[in-house]
Amino acid sequence: MTGSLPTDPADVADPVDPADTVDAPPGLRADRVSRRADGRLIVDGITLTLRPGETLGLLGPNGSGKSTLLRLLAGILAPSAGVVTLDGRPLPSVGRRATARRIATVEQHAHTQTELTVREVVALGRIPHRRAWSSSTATDTRAVDAALEHTGLTDRAGQSWHTLSGGERQRAQIARALAQEPYELLLDEPTNHLDIQHQLDLLDLVVGLPIATVIALHDLNLAAMYCDRLLVLREGHVVAEGTPGQVLTPSLIEQVYGVQADVTHDPGHPVIRFLRRTPKP
Amino acid sequence: MTTRLLLLIAGGPAALLASIAVAVTIGPADISTSDVWAAVSAHLGLGESTLPPLRDGIVWNLRMPRTLLAAVCGAGLALCGAVMQSLLRNPLADPFVLGVSSGASTGAVAVVVLGVGGGAVSLSAGAFTGALLSFGLVLMLSHSLGGSTDRVVLSGVAAMQLFSALTSFTVLTSADADTTRAVLFWLLGSLTGAGWSDVLLCAVVLAGVLLVCLGHARTLDAFAFGEEAAAALGVRVARTRLVLLCATALLTATLVSSAGAIGFVGLVLPHATRALTGSGHARLLPVTALAGAIFLVWVDTAARTVIDPQEVPVGVVTSLIGVPAFVAVLYRGRRKT
């Protein structure tokens, strides 16, 4: 793929040395990571740095590699090439449990057949903090309480997860992620299947969190409204990176999504208006 | 919730002990609980036996090992069922989902009907070997298909079909009527002829596997939303799956080689227990093991007394109770989708 804007030049020029943890910048970085599946490159040499506290939006059409990139960043998938580092250490050497104490993920569509209360679902987030055989501590209870409160689910704590609406289920998943007390939160299209009110509620909640967030989104306007920085993927490559104002141009939207759009600039962020392919009859 | 939990912790083991003590007194020969106490204390070296040798023999050599084996089998099958259901995220999984029981049947039939091993190999040893062969086949097949849980279940179903067919073929083509009856009785699950060596072997394996499973209780909780969610919570999914599959297969194989394939305990008891304890495995696993033990002690007592002097294979009775419960599980599952 051509036309890929270079990321921060320092990132590209600076290959990560696993031994070099002293001067490594804090946070989550991907260094030229690729993931191959069935002979096809799903993610192809992506480099990114997640800055502390920022909300980074991942954009791109279906199949552009957003979900796979999130899994690579969370350490759930191992890259076929390249390395993901946390505070300069490659994820495999950080270890699964320690990684899960730092990075929390919220999947697109969580489902279970197990009969669980909302509190029990949220308490799953404490698993990486607990050893086998130990019972839950006051710290665990506090973290769960705080997560429930943060997501407005305190009243629902004793209710069965199966009785929640779609929006509430997503909030419960975010509460579970917050109970992990992460520094990095990865969300894969968390607003799918939600009505507009719940989409806005959820994004307000997420961007209000004082942690670094990567969020895969389909809706360009929501991305423009809520993200500090955007990374646009197409066929596994980064095709653009920058602030919403820099990235969301009519030419990029046409290049990536193949649609025509007008972009106007509201104070603060761009507003995208898609154009019909055929004139209104 | 906490008072109920305390009740379970204190009441469960007490109920199990009481069940065993009472179940031993039930049967054709008239035995009282004080007789049971006298025999047990004498054999444990706590006093002189005051019982006549015949009655002592009935308690100590016949009913006691049989009742204890029922308890151990019930506990083990319920434990394996609970672990399988959570690990495979399948509410209909049971200890036999990996084809272990069918493999065991084929092994047993090979020994009894075909005389494999030339008389040097016992039915139990044959069953155990068959069980492990079948489990090995399931592991290899599911691994080569990608190792995900649905592949494990499908591989188990394939192995189950294959070994059931082999068993039927062998029995129909080679066995005489008496052997067929004996084999059938064993296939349906039976605690007849349980001895102390069976009890000890099964109890030791049960204790070991129970410890492994309890050590993985939190990890199993993490599987509620699937393997990827478990991985995101810091679980090493492939390793956990292998350890728990091997542990439960070992326990199931041991139990099946002693008592045949007693159905439905492993399917139904975990569901019944979840209603009491909730889904947290730190509570669910010990309580379901206790419940399974108590359940099978009573079911076996019924199996050997209800149409006295005839004996019904215990597996038939568990299935008679289990099928309606299975249907109830299906109905509950339908509501959630």
From TrEMBL, chain B:
Signal peptide location: 1-23
Protein name: Iron chelate uptake ABC transporter family permease subunit
Domain of life of the source: Bacteria
UniProt xrefs under InterPro entries: ABC_transptr_permease_BtuC
Key words, A-Z: Membrane, Signal, Transmembrane, Transmembrane helix
Transmembrane segments: 68-88, 95-114, 120-140, 152-172, 184-214, 242-269, 281-299, 311-331
